[in-house]
Amino acid sequence: MAPPRPRSPSNNADRNPYPSDSEHPDAPLPNEPYRDDESSHISSLVEYEPRPIDESDETEEDIIAESSRPRHAWQAKLRVFWLKNKGVFLVLLAQAFGASMNVMTKVLEINSSLHPFQILFARMSITALASYFYMWYARVPHPLGTKPIIHLLITRAVFGFMGVYGLYYSVQYLPLAEATVITFLAPIMTCYACSLLIPGETFNKRQQAAALVSLGGVMLIARPFRTRDSHASNLDQGLEQGDSSSSTDSYHHVMATIVAFIGVIGAAGAYTSIRVIGKRAHPLVSVTYFSSVTTIISLVAMAVFPWVQFRLPSTPLEWTLMAGLGVCGFLLQFLLTAGLSYVPPREVANSKASQGSRATSMVYTQVVFALFYDKVVWGTTLSLMSAAGSVLILACAIYVAVMQDERSDPGPVTQPDNRPQFKDVGDEEALISPAQG
Questions:
Q1: What are the residues facing 421 on neighbouring strands?
Q2: Are 338 and 90 in contact (CB under 8 A)?
Q3: Per its UniProt record, what InterPro entries does this chain match (predicted)?
Q4: Nearest residue to 360 via CA among 183, 199, 131
Q5: CA within 13 Å, CB half, 338
Q6: Which helix (H) or strand (E) holds 127?
């Protein structure tokens, strides 16, 4: 009789080929207590646990990358949205600082009876010093601008002074609501001017309609032509402009209106000049020219006109407000210039460049920030009409910001790389050529 074959000679070569007593089928059960073999138990679970078919072909890095892919896609969409609308959000942030600056200006005019030239000198001198210091710290190339665009920088500064002085002068003799409504004519003029003077700039009918509707929202908030009795008129004027405005005659009212419209032309000219300058100058260079020219003009006016005396802040509160005024003015001008001159990179700009028009329309949102400060600082209750106007302004501003131009780009824009670029057009081309893609 042949001996039985070993059970698994490959697994245990030294094992006795004949079964022992404990391995015999009729052998009694072992007396040792049962011990779970943890290694064999885990191996059996791993061996028989259902797994995806292609799991063996993926490494740990592949699994991690696959699990994080939706988050990366969301971040990519957010980055594209930011690159498309970066200029819009910069202008929006600039309006927040602009509203803060107007609050400080109003407090100084009411409590300290400061003249616009005195406020402009204090504000712009601080802004100029901060601009020069930052350009030195950041080593901005060509801090005085290059020779071909120096005249454009000076033009931007002169127009900017006209705009800011028109606002500061008009609020002395006009209700603050009327002066605010007049200043909001500047963005519409800028949009039309850019679409006519700068190649590639568009301002389609939908954007025009949204801008006009937002202007209607400003009218709902301001209500400059509403009928008021003499007591309410004097009370409002006394709260907004101080004691001098309650005795305003028709001559000063007409003059203030004319100066306010001159300020609108100045603001529109400054915005358009920023678009023409584009990336040929660092945004801070434009801010430095504007603040320096305004400081010089204000200083000369205080030295020439006898009714405007040179005055420095006399109390800690005035010094604090003046310093805050200068800082907010610096941030306002820097963010506004950067936002208006920003152009999305080529890979995300899939339509005609309407960035300037959309970004300029965000200037309307300053009214919303002003309403917020009125409620927080002065406790002004928001009326139903003001709330409706605020909703209109926000809705139209957001619509203009996120709306893509339906007109396709006729040709690719040639750029050496894909980095974010600022507008770069020649002087003669920007002023003569018709708007085209």
A1: 343
A2: yes
A3: EamA_dom, EmrE-like
A4: 183
A5: 16
A6: helix 116-138
Spatial distance between the Cα atoms of 22 and 37, rounded to a whole number of angstroms? 19
The pLDDT of 179-208, averaged and rounded, is: 77
Highest mean pLDDT pick, 54-58, 133-137, 168-172: 133-137
Sequence-ordered list of residues with C-beta below 8 angstroms from that of 26, at least 6 positions apart, any chain: none
Confidence class for position 297, pLDDT limits 50, 70, 90:
very high
Is 80 exceeded by the pLDDT of residue 91? yes
Question: What is d(CA 110, CA 133) in angstroms, rounded to the nearest whole number?
Answer: 32
Q: For residues 61 and 335, is the Cβ–Cβ distance under 8 A?
A: no
- 3-state secondary structure at position 51: coil
Q: What is the pLDDT of residues 274-289, one digit of tens each?
A: 888 888 888 889 889 9
Where residue 421 falls among pLDDT bands split at 50, 70, 90? very low
Quote the tokens at residue 392: 């209109």
Cα–Cα distances (Å) from 134 to 139, 141, 143, 288, 293, in that order, read 8, 12, 10, 10, 18
Question: pTM for this one?
Answer: 0.58
Spatial contact of 202 and 354, defined as CB atoms under 8 Å apart: yes
Residue 435, burial from CB neighbour count under 10 angstroms (0-12, 13-18, 19+): middle
What's the distance, CA 195 to chain centroid? 22
**Helical spans, DSSP H, in 201-311:** 205-222, 230-240, 250-277, 283-304
Task: Using only the alpha carbons of the chain, give its radius of gyration.
Answer: 35
